[in-house]
Write a structure and sequence with these properties.
The protein is α/β, with parallel strands linked by helices. Helix content is 37%, strand content 24%. Strands 1, 2, 3, 4, 5, 14, 15, 16 and 17 form a nine-stranded mixed beta sheet that branches. An eight-stranded parallel beta sheet has the order 6-7-8-9-10-11-12-13. It starts with a strand and ends with a helix.
Length: 425
């Protein structure tokens, strides 16, 4: 039995709501959270980590990121969604070879870990061949992050080929770990109703959740997409609706009644001129609503930027409609609500004993974090990536003393640079 004791930090739990537990310890045994409380005994053979001067909380959860785009960071600022789709998906993506996928996904996943994101849904629409897919899965596993692989079929061929390849990926890579895969559907909005119905039916056959960009294009498209799912008896399938800006309050209630969830990306939704994030409206309908980095091709990818953007855009809704939204609400979205979105609330997202020990320690001995009166507000409004001192995933230390510990970071950076030079012209 291996044990780790995080000793003397200011501990924040997040379930049912973010709460400061004060000076406490967190005991980890065999990768699981064993006990949280003051003055815990270390016991023989326990590694003690001095957490004094830090805030200890569950790791962040990102529910929608195109991780392969780490190789084309900041290539397209100051743009719009149509330009992004044309330049990135139809222009640059076909240049990616399997080795580029591996280099970019590994780098992007390590970027997440370094900034305190311990769980990631990789919404991967770079699956041009089976070799691309295999490289993507291998990179996620090599990174050591807790991941859900959102598989979006990208090969040429009919819908039968899509179904067959989805089954292969599930069988060969996730048969023993079914909750680590989701079907990333292009339809019914982007890829059309026929493809959408085929994708959702394969997901139902394999008992995979669906993650789909829906409700983010126009009010008419949003309603048509839901109507397709309702007409085909698919609305009740487990699904995360990415963006969802154009859903009405009534539509959100229909999604909630069918067990859906929402992933918002407050940075890309505003920077690409799509619209204001639907954060408060989705949560008011009872939907688990989470945060996601989307793409670093056009904006930031760290959770601190996402939390601040979500907080600020919600607070400036017309007629003071968002003034009830608090820093505690946004921290919940970044942790346990993200886990709920991914169907992993029994695994991660809070400090409940028995869950996986996905933990982060944020330094407070910096000028930007010193003397913070409200630790939760400090995490949301003051911390940044440089605050992340230590990160554990399943009780395994992946970052210690501000440095990733299991990877040759210069080699990873070299791989990303090689890809950037090859594909970014």
């Amino acid at each position: 039995m291996t044990s780790i004791l995080l000793k003397g930090g200011v501990v924040i739990d997040t379930d049912p709501v973010p709460t400061v537990l004060g000076g406490s310890d967190v005991l980890v045994r065999d990768g699981l959270i064993a006990t949280v409380g003051p003055d815990l005994a270390a016991g023989p053979g326990t590694e003690v980590i001095d957490a004094s001067g830090t805030i200890v909380l569950p790791g962040f959860v990102d529910t929608h990121r195109h991780t392969w785009q780490a190789g084309i960071r900041a290539i397209l600022p100051d743009t719009t969604l149509p330009v992004y789709l044309e330049r990135i998906l139809y222009g640059i993506a076909p240049r990616f070879e399997a080795r580029d996928v591996y280099a970019s996904v590994l780098g992007g996943a390590l970027e997440c870990l370094e900034s305190g994101i311990t769980t990631l849904l990789d919404w991967s629409h770079i699956q041009l061949t089976p070799s691309h897919t295999d490289a993507n899965v291998e990179a996620l596993r090599a990174a050591g992050i807790r991941s859900v692989f959102g598989y979006a079929y990208g090969g040429r061929g009919d819908l039968d080929a899509m179904a067959a390849e989805t089954r292969r990926v599930h069988r060969e890579h996730f048969g023993d770990d079914p909750r680590s895969m989701a079907l990333a559907a292009f339809g019914p909005e982007i890829g059309g109703p026929e493809r959408g119905v085929a994708e959702w039916r394969v997901a139902r056959e394999l008992d995979l959740p669906v993650t789909a960009h829906m409700g983010g294009h126009s009010a008419e498209s949003a309603e048509r997409g839901l109507a397709v799912l309702e007409g085909e008896g698919l609305l009740g399938h487990r699904a995360t609706y990415v963006h969802g800006l154009f859903y009405t309050d009534e539509a959100f209630k229909r999604i909630a009644a069918n067990g859906g969830s929402v992933s918002v990306t407050p940075t890309s939704e505003t920077m690409l001129n799509i619209g204001l994030p639907p954060t408060g409206r989705a949560r008011a309908a009872g939907l688990p609503t989470s945060l996601s980095g989307d793409t670093v091709a056009t904006g930031p990818g760290d959770m601190f930027s996402l939390m601040r953007a979500a907080y600020m855009f919600e607070r400036v809704r017309p007629d003071d409609a968002g003034m009830g939204f608090t820093t505690r609400d946004v921290l919940r979205m970044a942790t346990i609500e993200g886990a709920e979105t991914l169907g992993l609330a029994d695994v991660t997202g809070s400090l409940r004993p028995g869950k996986q020990a996905d933990l982060i320690m944020l330094r407070t001995d910096t000028l930007g974090m010193a003397s913070a009166h409200d630790p939760i507000a400090a995490v949301v409004l003051c911390a940044d990536t440089s605050s992340v001192d230590t990160v554990l995933v399943g009780g395994r230390i992946v970052k210690r003393g501000g440095r990733l510990v299991h990877h040759d970071v210069p080699a990873v950076l070299a791989g990303i640079a090689e890809t950037a030079a090859r594909v970014g012209g």
